[in-house]
C-alpha cells in the first residue's frame, strides 16, 4: 500500500467522503460546513477527520482510517498533518474510551464534563444516552508526544 498524502478535502470532492463513511463507518456523515482533512493514496481516500466549527472552538469528529490501515500509524500521521487546524482555535473531541490513549499521544488531554463548553456538554450527554462510551478531550499541543 502506498504512502498516504494528507491535505484538506477540496469542496468538489465532498461526495467521496460520505461514500468512504458509508463503506466503513455508516454512522458518520460529513456536512458541508465542516473542515475535512483526508489521507489518500492511489486507491483513493484512506483516512479522514472532520472539524465542526463553533464560534469560539471546534470539535474534532468522525475520524476514520480504512480498516486495512489501522494500527499502522496513519491516524497519528493524519492528526500531525492537520496540526494547524487543531491549533487554529480550541479543539475538543469525544474519544471512544478505548481510543483515549491514542488521542493523548496526539496531544489531547482528558477533561471532566464540566470543563466543556455548554454546547458540547449537552451533546456528550445525549451521545452517552444513546449508548456510546465517550471521553471528553481537548487538544493541547504542549502535551503531544509526537
TrEMBL record:
GO molecular function terms noted in the UniProt entry: acyltransferase activity, transferring groups other than amino-acyl groups
Sequence ranges assigned to domain N-acetyltransferase in this UniProt record: 1-132
Superkingdom to which the source organism belongs: Bacteria
Pfam families from the UniProt entry: Acetyltransf_7
Name the UniProt record assigns to this protein: N-acetyltransferase domain-containing protein
Organism: Photobacterium gaetbulicola Gung47
Organism phylogeny: Bacteria, Pseudomonadati, Pseudomonadota, Gammaproteobacteria, Vibrionales
Amino acid at each position: 500500500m502506498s504512502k498516504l498524502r494528507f491535505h484538506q478535502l477540496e469542496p468538489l470532492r465532498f461526495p467521496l467522503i460520505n461514500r468512504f463513511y458509508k463503506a466503513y463507518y455508516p454512522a458518520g456523515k460529513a456536512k458541508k460546513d465542516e473542515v475535512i482533512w483526508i489521507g489518500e493514496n492511489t486507491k483513493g481516500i484512506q483516512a479522514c477527520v472532520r472539524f465542526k466549527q463553533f464560534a469560539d472552538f471546534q470539535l474534532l469528529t468522525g475520524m476514520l482510517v480504512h480498516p486495512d490501515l489501522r494500527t499502522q500509524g496513519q491516524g497519528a500521521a493524519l492528526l500531525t498533518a492537520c496540526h494547524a487546524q487543531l491549533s487554529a482555535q480550541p479543539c475538543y473531541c469525544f474519544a471512544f474510551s478505548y481510543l483515549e490513549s491514542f488521542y493523548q499521544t496526539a496531544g489531547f488531554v482528558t477533561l471532566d464534563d464540566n470543563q466543556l463548553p455548554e454546547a458540547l456538554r449537552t451533546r456528550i450527554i445525549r451521545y452517552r444516552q444513546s449508548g456510546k462510551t465517550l471521553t471528553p478531550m481537548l487538544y493541547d499541543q504542549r502535551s503531544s508526544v509526537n
